[in-house]
Amino acid sequence: MRIPLMAGLTKILLPLLLLLSVAAASSPSSDAEAVSRFQEYLRIDTAQPTPDYAAAVAFLRDQAAAVGLEARTLEFAAGKPLLLLRWPGRRPSLPSILLNSHTDVVPSEPKKWEHAPLSATLDEASGRIYARGSQDMKCVGMQYLEAIRRLRNAGFVPDRNIYVIFVPDEEIGGHEGVELFVASKEFKELNVGLVLDEGLASPREEYRVFYAERSPWWLTIKAKGAPGHGAKLYDGSAMENLMKSVEALRRFRTAQFDLVKSEEKAEGDVVSVNFAYLKAGTPTPTV
Ligand SMILES: [Zn+2]
């Protein structure tokens, strides 16, 4: 989602990270319960293209009720519920914090998996949980809820309103999910100052924070040229013309990639260009 970060980022973010580290204080039994709640979420089949959003939202509403959060299900597109949770702050006039995660996951090919993708099998020895969505990004959504659960149990009340949203359709562009939400009056009413969105799962206590957004840009190149017989050599054919553009893009791609390889820039700081699809030519002797 593309919401500009407000000034004073560190003023909001640092206390939040402190909060999350306080929330990390736990007991073995509460950890085990958190893990089994996570497994339960993973077992709900929210894989595109037919995600069971109703089951996911029902599960999350139960979790929110157990944690003591106010819940609203918003449906901007039919059959695509967005769950909005609210943890009221002491000073609700301050800009709020919005914690985002998506409920859908990408499809899987079960035959290529050691454990069924919806089994959420826990390997006791390594502590690993195998499931589609375990990283992208059901783990983050559950971490938000577990952190809030522990903070509330410890009697903590935040200064600002904290909102947690679980959005549909992120894996297919979010057009009927967060895109409609950010244009809604419900979103404006939240008075959002800071959003924490998708990042990387961390197996340790460190939490990496990114503060950049990459925008996709689809470029279609249509090459035209002189037609002719394949037995002749001539200038200006469509494929020759296309190759000039491809070569220019390839050089740009290499230059960007070199910056990453030489560690001059991070992966998120360059423009990544990838050729996705080529449709060209005719399967006849005519060029
Ligand atoms: Zn994701």
Automatic annotation (TrEMBL):
Keyword Hydrolase annotated: yes
Annotated compartments: Cytoplasm
Cofactor: record remark: Binds 2 Zn(2+) ions per subunit.
Keywords: Cytoplasm, Hydrolase, Metal-binding, Signal, Zinc
Positions bound to Zn(2+) 2: 136, 171
The enzyme's E.C. designation: 3.5.1.14
Pfam families per UniProt: Peptidase_M20
One of the record's GO molecular function terms: metal ion binding
Cofactor requirements of the protein: Zn(2+)
Signal keyword on record: yes
Active site: residue positions: 104, 170
GO cellular component: cytoplasm
Span of the signal peptide: 1-24
Residues annotated for Zn(2+) 1 binding in this entry: 102, 136, 198
Biological processes per GO annotation: amino acid metabolic process
Name of the protein described by the UniProt record: N-acyl-aliphatic-L-amino acid amidohydrolase
Organism name: Aegilops tauschii subsp. strangulata (Goatgrass)
